[in-house]
Amino acid sequence: MKKSYFTVGPSELYPTVKGHVLEAIEQQIGSLSHRGAKFEDIFSSAVEGMRRLLSIPEDYTIFFVSSGTEAMERTIENVVEKNSFHFVNGAFSKRFFDTALELGKHAEKIEVDLGQGFDLNNVRGVTRVKGSRQGTGIDLKDHSSEHLRDERAAGPQIPIDVELICFTHNETSTGVMLPAEQIAKIKQAYPDKLIAIDIVSSAPYAHIDFAKADIVFFSVQKGFGLPAGLGVMVVSPKALEKAGFLQQHGNYIGTYHNFPTLKKWADKNQTPETPSVFHLFLLSKVVEDMLTIGIDTIRQQTDEKAKLLYDFFDKHSSWNSFVEDKTFRSPTVIVANIGIDQKRLKEYLKKEHIIIGSGYGPNKDTQIRLANFPALPIPDIKKLLALLKKFQ
Ligand SMILES: *Cc1c(COP(=O)(O)O)cnc(C)c1O
Known about the structure:
Elements: E1 4-5, H1 17-26, H2 37-54, E2 61-65, H3 68-79, E3 83-88, H4 91-102, E4 106-111, E5 124-126, E6 138-139, H5 140-147, E7 157-159, E8 164-168, E9 170-171, E10 176-177, H6 180-189, E11 194-198, E12 215-219, E13 231-235, H7 237-248, H8 259-266, H9 277-293, H10 295-315, E14 320-321, E15 333-337, H11 342-351, E16 354-355, E17 357-358, E18 367-371, H12 378-390
Parallel strand pairs: 1-16, 3-4, 3-8, 4-6, 5-7, 8-11, 11-12
Antiparallel strand pairs: 2-13, 9-10, 12-13, 14-15, 15-18, 17-18
Helix pairs in contact: 1-9, 2-9, 3-4, 10-12
This protein binds pyridoxal-5'-phosphate.
């Protein structure tokens, strides 16, 4: 019997994927030359579809890479010479920060506990005190007085010489979503800085104002309901310019997937390497399906389903939502504390052909994570809720 995957990635496939896979086989997509006109059509249909679905400006370029994790590395490599700054509140934002450290950058972070968001309305730019350490992670929360002036000021502090500010819009490990309009305001306050936003587990729901961001990326095995193996990066002219500048000044920015090379090929509706043509085909088709439904409807349905789930946990006698502050509750990844019931509940649902995710890290055995992606329609959510209610 077919299972329902409420896992946060890989996730339930979008209902139309099966038909598109068959069509791909029939059209012999797997044997197409990636330098031919038919491939260019697939590439451009994926790109133009995404532009319309997510309202991506014409002057932003869309690149295809292999994963969300690759997108983090490409981001840091291509636009950071020395200093990046990271908002860290879980496993994926930490991965972004660690990537910068591993690439030898001077990465700094503000870190809050799992399940928390940030006071983004009170971000302040601060001057760095001379002699800050290079290549080490500096936790501004714990050591701000060591390195920064104005340590008494409330709210996150960003050193003014930071080149790139990195956000994880939806922290999949904890179910915290940062308000997109607050992230957009950071660009307004610091127009000279580049802004990177990981929307891996919030796309296509995420309502991003691309004009207020420079690099936005996601992979397709979460909200787009496709098999894993394809990452998408949306890159601003300013970020491209920075990558070109770094390259001209002798900085290493990667090889085949550096921004100038990706851009050169993207302009021809092609990729530097032989890509997963199959994935691009499936993505173009699913994006078309989503356009038919309409992004507003998809967002509305996501909110509606999220409300059903959060209401259930709020009313439950012993279980509760992990994220207490409602401004940060993710509509796409719902995390609940269910304590000692967890293992038994997972088994119980499995017998009913429903697969759910465990908690992350220290909460692995006491929390559940539920994906609320477009591939799971309202009846599936209602079926899950009925079973959760029945579970004793
Ligand atoms: C899953 C995930 C990633 C990693 O993406 P991959 O495609 O698995 O490399 C990065 N960031 C977030 C927020 C994620 O949920």
